[in-house]
Design a protein that fits this description.
Layout lengths: L2 E12 L5 E12 L14 H8 L7 E6 L2 E2 L4 H7 L15 H8 L1
Antiparallel strand pairs: 1-2, 1-3, 3-4
Bound molecules: adenosine-5'-triphosphate (ATP) and magnesium ion.
The site of magnesium ion has 2 residues, from helix 1.
Amino acid sequence: MSFVIEYENLVKIFKGTPPVTALDNVNLKIPKGSIHGLFGPNGAGKSTLIAILMGLTLPTRGVARVLGHDVLRESLEIRRKVGLLPEGFEFYDDMTALENLKYTA
Ligand SMILES: Nc1ncnc2c1ncn2[C@@H]1O[C@H](COP(=O)(O)OP(=O)(O)OP(=O)(O)O)[C@@H](O)[C@H]1O
Ligand SMILES: [Mg+2]
């Protein structure tokens, strides 16, 4: 497997009045063993791009793959293999570290 993350012609339009085009034809391939940072101004689409990887929101068009798995068809397999620490995560103070991990899992 040569790429761990692949986006091909990815489009995400949030429905609404007016609709919001959050991702407009994104093409990106991240090779195995590399470290990448995703930078952009507020509203650029960073969180949407990550959410699509984890199956938390669906792409409108295009393809996204993680470790070779299609985000639409193999979301469960992706979630088994990938850990995501989203912004704003908080621990429960009255639980131990292990209890926090078990509860979150
Ligand atoms: N659930 C939603 N419904 C409608 N529009 C949304 C939704 N989520 C995001 N958007 C819009 O999509 C665009 C991209 O948002 P996104 O949160 O991905 O940007 P971001 O780069 O993560 O921004 P920030 O740096 O503020 O976290 C913005 O215009 C945002 O308002
Ligand atoms: Mg964000």
